[in-house]
DNA sequence: CACCGATGTATCTATGCGGACACAACGTCG
DNA sequence: CGACGTTGTGTCCGCATAGATACATCGGTG
């Protein structure tokens, strides 16, 4: 089976901070010295020291290093370094979300465009989606399952009162609960749209296979990519 | 300024396909031969050929290579290779979404947990969010702006009829239109939640600075990360 | 049957990354 | 003032990546 992965990076100017660098900073924070961090990571001191100097020359102070003294000295992280780690963690978490959550794909052609937003005619009907300028018809539209909202058919909000631009009526085709999270398949015009719900929401809506539901998602959560292939995917 | 980036990968078994490999396959598809692809990419033929063989030995047939013949032979991609490219494109598009879209962050502590879902007490109130087992209080909760739905205060759907678990009343604090897409800042209890809307939705809801709105998002679209830092971020 | 243009394959080399190691510098403490 | 545990620096080596080159192979075509 094919698995989606990534490597996160943070760029500051022309410097690029990778997961390795963050790991390095964390080790320094944990141990209080470069040499102990090197030992803890099983890497050479020389390399760590050089990398720290290189990073600091590119993106400014990250550590306060001190040599000599009662304890022989040591290295501590600056606030800037802590912030960097925090930012990296958030990015990593978000990207992990993307690779974890599954996605529904619909083929179609772009009919209307205004700026970055376009309307794509698909098998389940028109989808308002984010269509970058560079993408060309035919396209595939991807919808993240964690962006799909389910409502009871009659409970769907008035179109003039919400910012959700895509709404489709369908039937629940599959329910798969796991660890407080429920994956739901919604069959719309013979095609499946997948949604991710909390178990609580699922019981609250009282969803079961065969029930009618209204699935909706924001245009900004749907993304179109040019469809280069002739064959189907997955 | 610091920019978020990534490198996408697809793993099949123990093989990992990178952007470079996809570029390679695309060049083969475009030119019809390994040697022409190598020239087109400005890389050595030997390396390309080796990489193709390596990839195929790990993940199965990707090309039909033929030598001899009127044209001397050539190389074409199999459907499997096309599918691989398509999958990669989708992943790339989604990840790009993450790094492009901005995110609101709230600090808080986890109070209730059931499976992967937890309740985080924050400055804007309780947030139901995805809290991986490994994450510990205190946490920071990140909410992608493209997952935030805005409604008119009175138009918000009945809580029993929707799968959105987080809903907050606030006031529009900023509106920034660009290229058919509107970034909106919503002030909730003195803290800002950012939302991404289509220009159309924005005019439909008739949003302007100072207007009251109801902002909501799904629990599965909010992610918590342990808050290691003492300092604030960004 | 030689030619051509492509694919296979082997070998050599340049480059960069990172570990290993040696040694200097530093500042407090006994 | 010497010991100690750090940081700072330079040099060497092993390894992996990838270009350069050379040569064999294949199969139509003139």
Low-pLDDT windows of residues of chain A:
none
Proportion in β-strands of chain A: 35-45%
The largest sheet of chain A, given as strand count, sense and whether it forms a barrel, is: 5 strands, antiparallel
Overall number of strands of chain A: 14
Widest sheet: strand ordering of chain A:
7-6-5-8-14
Name the largest protein-protein interface in this structure: A-B, 88 and 88 residues
Spatial gap, N to C terminus of chain A: 10 Å
Order of helices and strands of chain A: EEHHHEEHEEEEEEEEHEE
Rg result of chain A? 24 Å
Count of distinct structural domains of chain A: 2
Average pLDDT of chain A works out at 91
CATH class of the largest domain in chain A: Mainly Beta
> Helix count of chain A?
5
Shape by Cα distribution of chain A: elongated
Structure class of chain A: alpha+beta
The helix fraction of chain A, in percent, is 25-40%
How does CATH name the architecture of the largest domain in chain A?
Beta Barrel
The CATH homologous superfamily name of the largest domain in chain A equals RNA polymerase II/Efflux pump adaptor protein, barrel-sandwich hybrid domain
Oligomer: homodimer
* CATH T-level topology of the largest domain in chain A: OB fold (Dihydrolipoamide Acetyltransferase, E2P)
